[in-house]
Amino acid sequence: MTTLIMLDLSAAFDVIDHLILLNYLEFSFGIREKALNWVKSYLNDRIKCVSVVDKTSPDVSLLFGVPQASVLGPKNYCMYTKTSCRASSDKCLSENRNFGVKNMKKI
Q1: Measured distance CA(82)–CA(57) in Å, rounded
Q2: What's the angle, vertex CA 74, arms to CA 73 and CA 75, rounded to 5?
Q3: Which whole-number Å values give the CA distances from 62 to 11, 36, 91, in the listed order?
Q4: Distance between CA 79 and CA 66 in Å, rounded?
Q5: Cα–Cα distance between 16 and 42 in angstroms, integer?
């Protein structure tokens, strides 16, 4: 017997709270100043609307979610979910902080 389990992770990108993500980036990963402001500008002032045939919905501000059709969206998602191990060990927290600082300096 073969079982196939498929997960649609695209919806997971839509539930990331911008304020929580920015706090994680700053306090768990040590990202500050210019790099943090750059990520803020990437997330802020995003809007969404839906068009069907000749009808378009009003614009809605997005306070949650990261863009999926980008390089930074999946990275933000991984950093957001990686911080969930903070409570389990101090070592994990220090590894997260070092990971974030090293990788953000490359940008």
Answers
A1: 35
A2: 90
A3: 14, 19, 34
A4: 12
A5: 14
Contact 16, 80 (CB under 8 A): yes
Domain map of the chain by residue range?
12-51+73-105
Q: In the Cβ-directed half-sphere of 50, how many Cα atoms lie within 13 Å?
A: 1
Structure tokens that stand for 81 in this block: 């979910």
* Per-residue pLDDT reduced to its tens digit, 75-103: 888 888 876 555 444 444 444 444 444 44
Please, which residues bridge with residue 51 across strands? Answer: 56
| Cross-strand pairs, 17 | 64
Cβ distance 32 to 26 under 8 Å? yes
Residues with Cβ < 8 Å from 57, sequence gap 6 or more? 49, 50, 51
Largest CA distance in the chain: 55
